[in-house]
Predict the structure.
Amino acid sequence: MEIYEKLRVLFWRVGFYGALTEGGVASLYSGLVDAFVKLGHKTIFASSGPMILPKETEFYLIEYSKLLRNFPEVLTFPYNKTSLKKILKIVETNQPHFFYLHHHDFHYGGAKLKERTGLPFILHFDSIEYWVKKNWGKLYFGNLLKWCEQIEVAQADAIITISEVLKKQACEFYNIPPHKVHSVPNGVDINRFNPDIDGNEIRQKYGLENKFVVGYSGTFNQYHGVDLIAKASKYIVNEIPNSVVFFIGDGALREKVEEILKADGIRNKVVITGLVPYSDIPKYLAACDVMVSPITHKHNDEFFGTPIKHYEYKAMGKPIIASNIGTLKDIFVHQVNSFVIPPDSVEAIIEAVKHIYNNPELSRMIAQNARQDAIQKHSWEVNARKIIQIYQQLID
Amino acid sequence: MKFVLFLLSGNAQKIADANKLNFEEIQIIKLDEKELSKPTKIVSLIKQFKGFKVYFGTIDNRFQRFQTFIKIYLLLSCSSGIIIDELGQQNKFNLTRLILQELPLLLVEVVYSIVLIIYYHIKIYLLKWKYTRN
């Protein structure tokens, strides 16, 4: 049975940092909601904080307690109860067909909402939080975290992972039947990110006119490989005439990046923008001639992520230099839609940038193919249709 | 007067503009939020900027955790300072308010947090048993 009726979809965002309108989770939600609206469905959004959403979306704010702000994680425990009370009222008022929840650490409210209402529950799972906290952050109350994840994955009717690698890892870690898990990689708004956007304003602002701009965008953290680009910068600016390395973003490794650039005596030849509003990112990307994403993964398993920025680069029709690890092998094909390099290699970054600079024809070809890929495979509308298909399977 | 901005989140330029500070005059130190759990490091960092006017910058103060701890660090380093954000909101260090209001509230939070941790360990364990037993 194919769904022709207008669906009412409830999106539920529970993260404390969901209070902020920038970042990957915000992009995911706003991209998906926008796509559902474009497809003619009604969207209802319950959120822990403000969100930028289409005007057609019914928005409800469910805030965290203001008292618990000085200890990590504790504030999320009671939010399960307080948010459930409010979301039940929202369900009663709007009568959605199903609800879509981005998994957040220490949250088990999805299971409770499903139990109380019988609504189909689609859980978006972009990482095993227990793994993330243990390996990339700080793990407090490990058992509680695991139990909450076990509750949510057990009760979800369908689980969406952002990659096949994560699907495999999650199924093994939490003993989830594979038929319940669907791999739907992240996506991009192909209209907002497109090759016709003019980057001149940004080029003027940062003095990049008539230069070959090597771009990096994203959080300054270990796994994005920003320090590798910093190390490569000296060779790039010295060996490629009139070139500049353009760092768009900020983060924990900012100081380290600054130190590398200063030690190499090239701080004045490199631009670091600091954090940029998400709405401005397309203009910043438009100002770049090539984008570099040397993702690195120093753990004994495969890299499971699909950073949204990769789809944005593709949609912008930019030549991309990316490392060939984990799920990225499915997104990037060497000399077809990107220039693929081995991970953790500064030399490979330098050589790849030089190769792209010296081969404008190749650069143009991979950029065009990347854009085509974005249109055909990675738009949020493609993802929204997949979610509707999953819902259809559930009700069938 | 010299200024230092410990940037926890957000854009330094936006924070400076929203709080009517001259961006060119500010020394910016990027600080990861995780670092706030290291009192010795933060206190010695603040002490390095003796004589500076100290700011902690965030995207939005309403969603910035650990603000009482930031003020305790300011107290321990014998400095005063302000937590400011991109919206122009300010949370100023005030010794009287810290002692009479914020520290007692922190104490309440400690006790409440301990109760919550115990309660939710039991509750979530039972939920896990209930929802995953099949």
Remarks:
- The two ends of chain B are 66 Å apart (CA to CA).
